[in-house]
Design a protein that fits this description.
Family: Belongs to the LytR/CpsA/Psr (LCP) family.
Largest sheet: 7 strands, mixed
Shape: globular
Oligomer: single chain
Protein name: LCP family protein
Number of strands: 13
Strand order of the largest sheet: 1-10-7-2-3-4-11
Pfam families: LytR_cpsA_psr
InterPro entries: LytR/CpsA/Psr_CW_biosynth, LytR_CpsA_psr
Helix content: 25-40%
Distance between the termini: 23 Å
Length: about 325
Amino acid sequence: MLVLLVVVAVGGFVGYLGWRVSDNITRADLLPTAAPPSTASDGSPIEVPSSGVGTNFLVVGSDSRGSDRGRSDVIVLVHVPEDPTSIEMIHFPRDLYVSIPGHGKNKINAAYAYGGEPLLVETLQNLLGIKIDHVARTNFEGFKNMTDAVGGVRVYAEEGNDASGNGGAAIHRGWNDLDGEQALAFVRERYELSEGDISRGRRQLAFVKALLLKATSRSTLTNPLAVARFTDAATENLVVDRDLTIGAMKDYALELRGIRSSDVVFATAPFSGFASDPQAGSIDVVDTKRMALLGEALRTDTMEDYLDVFVTP
């Protein structure tokens, strides 16, 4: 969905571009066969309003290399409200320690390793007590190509790191101008960052914001070649669930036509600290109370109220 939002923003469903989107996108069985939970993690019944609940998209960024499935290094839940004046993107750290159906407790990205998107969806649905409607997966190569397609991005970094493994460019605190290779290293880095995977998650969201800004800038929108290149780059590595048809995408495009990058709000899923597990290693401990509140906000389409209190700066 993250990629689709950008494509929508640059008019990716017009003429030739619409044909390219249809030709590029791959469909697969990304949703689970298991029904969403009827009770919350504390055992209380889940009450979901009959209308006004919005739509939940799971976006998975896979750091795949070669023919292997890779790791779900980007896990973002995108909530589109029933009345879409804003969009909320919630990043789930890959080290978040959760219950995985059939596999006990482990890091959340282990769900992807065990059973791909369907098991990851089921894990998140159980964690939050919600229904995930659609899934979209891209890989890090897609991030790189999209960046180059718009001529690079300007990203704000909360902290820096040296040039090793970063496309030959050191990252300094503050604004950085990055090409595709450098942006790829920017979103992958975690070992030199103060909070490891948490810091990397904030970097990934900063990159998404930068890409949204550049893709919807006047310099991009007024350049048909740049639009075509970006649309191609955004969709050539995109896999979506079978229910997300081109017709459904067009409907979402119409609903979201007024959304701009400033209307997209980013946050990190609630965790209470760090710990270690004998099998999983270093883990991020779920803040169960706030996670329950997040699930309730998603079910009742009241994310703005939740983010007013808990949004990560």
